[in-house]
Specification:
Elements lengths: L2 E3 L6 E3 L3 E2 L13 H13 L4 E3 L8 H10 L7 E6 L14 H14 L5 E6 L8 H13 L3 E7 L3 H10 L2 E7 L11 H8 L2 E5 L31 H6 L1 H14 L3 H12 L12 H8 L8 H12 L10 H10 L12 H17 L10 H7 L13 H7 L15
Bound molecules: NADP nicotinamide-adenine-dinucleotide phosphate.
């Protein structure tokens, strides 16, 4: 398979990587270990040399499966993993203290059965730890030979700049697809300026862009898509317009929607390397075929024009979290000198915990009463219904409004 280099790092990887998360995390079911190992090796047989995992996927089990699968071909592949949560558990909240990073790396190295991690990302910016300290810790790990390259995930522009000044980043891993183009405004120009590669996660819009999901599709219990408004029945119906577009282009080019979604990303910049996830070999093979699909300037213009007339509906994360993300996006609390950072963290962690426990297909968002009920002092009933904006105000976070922090999730 064609290779790409992530920014100015010199780190060369297959033009399409393999996102291994879904084999153990996020989609409700866990793939049988033997099957998962076979699939990862099948990806390598088909030219993939870039594999993505994280401490929190499972937690821990995904790294273990990836480690076992890649052990016999370790010298031929690039393994990327991530740290950044307390105890390696998302629900326990962000934790990028230097000692936590060092401990996480030891665990990852063991599970991945390797003595060096090729690309180590901070999974989410920790509002309580200056990003320079994080970058400095990774720099030390690089000097010690335990890590080769540094990356961040879903970080805002200011965090990226500050971290990059301490330890150059090879890549930013953030959501980017035909379905989610937010990085185009600030982040992609910044990456271009600094020479940092972009690794788009959820490049298939969590499956939506493949044209295999419609309003009748049901997701198993524990599937993250049950918890995001983008996948509400009405929004799925409304958003079929983008699937129609991708299908039409695919039809004209004699290819598949998944390949169009990935080829579009590949055409954006030569340093963009998407990492689709797949649990089925047929899906994986379809995705990898995207390297052979060339979108002409005319194709790209048509896509752009048609996209501009489509309004996508729904949030990529549970709506209440996305509302908060919008209100507070961009930088870490510490960098901004916020004194309320523990409060911000606790609110976000709480929302996150509740969102995680509600992935049962019944409720898209944590019940507001539960959120409020857990926040001391308890607001009176008269304060219902409460919106994220109200909650931010009530919790004294309004002074943070308009400023930016990174997504915490
Ligand atoms: N840094 C972060 O915070 C973060 C967040 C999310 C994801 N990620 C990384 O990004 C990777 C991919 O993201 P993702 O899994 O969220 O989303 P994705 O790659 O956009 O979509 C995966 C979904 O698409 C389906 N699919 C794949 N190829 C298909 C095809 N050709 N035809 C029909 N369906 C197809 C898969 O189905 P099957 O599984 O049934 O094959 C799966 O349901 C993850 O594995 C993970 O490594 C990182």
């Amino acid at each position: 398979m064609e290779k790409r280099v992530l920014g100015k790092s010199g780190l060369e990887v297959s033009a399409i990587g393999f996102g291994c998360m879904g084999l153990s995390h996020s989609y409700g079911t866990v793939t049988d270990r033997g099957e998962a190992i076979r699939l990862i090796r099948a990806a390598h047989d088909r030219g993939v040399t870039f594999f993505d995992t994280a401490e929190v996927y499972g937690p821990f089990t995904n790294e273990d499966v990836v480690g076992e699968a890649l052990q016999p071909i370790r010298d031929q592949v690039v393994i990327a993993t991530k740290f950044g949560f307390r105890n390696g558990v998302i629900a326990d909240g962000p934790d990028s203290r230097p000692e936590t990073i060092r401990r996480a790396v030891e665990g990852s190295l063991k599970r991945l059965r390797t003595d060096t991690i090729d690309l180590l990302y901070q999974h989410r910016v920790d509002p309580d730890v200056p990003v320079e300290d994080v970058a400095g810790t990774v720099k030390d790990l690089i000097a010690a030979g335990k890590v080769r390259h540094f990356g961040m995930s879903e970080a805002g522009g200011e965090s990226i700049r500050k971290a990059h000044a301490v330890q150059p980043l090879a890549a930013l891993q953030s959501e980017y697809s035909l379905f989610w183009r937010e990085p185009e405004t600030e982040i992609i120009p910044l990456l271009e300026e600094l020479g940092i590669g972009l690794v788009p996660f959820s490049p298939l819009g969590k499956g939506f862009l493949t044209g295999t999901i419609n309003e009748k599709t049901t997701f198993p219990t524990g599937d993250f898509r049950n918890a995001t408004s983008r996948f509400d029945t009405e929004n799925r119906r409304a958003n079929q317009a983008i699937v129609d577009l991708v299908r039409e282009i695919a039809w004209n080019k004699g290819t598949t929607p998944a390949q169009i979604a990935l080829a579009w990303l590949l055409a954006r910049r030569p340093w963009i390397v998407p990492i689709p996830g797949a649990r089925k070999l047929a899906h994986l093979e379809d995705d990898l075929g995207a390297v052979n699909v060339r979108l002409s300037r005319q194709d790209l213009r048509t896509i752009e024009k048609r996209l501009s007339s489509i309004t996508l509906r729904g949030e990529r994360y549970p709506a209440v979290m996305e509302a908060l993300r919008r209100a507070l996006k961009g930088r870490s609390c510490v960098e901004r000198g916020w004194t309320a950072s523990p409060e911000v963290t606790s609110v976000l962690t709480l929302w996150h915990n509740l969102c995680l426990t509600r992935q049962d297909g019944v409720s898209r968002d944590p019940p507001i009463a539960s959120i409020v009920g857990c926040l001391p002092p308890q607001p009176s009933k008269s304060q219902f219904p409460i919106t994220p904006a109200v909650l931010i105000r009530q919790r004294g976070l309004s002074r943070l409004g308009g400023r930016e922090v990174d997504v915490l999730f």
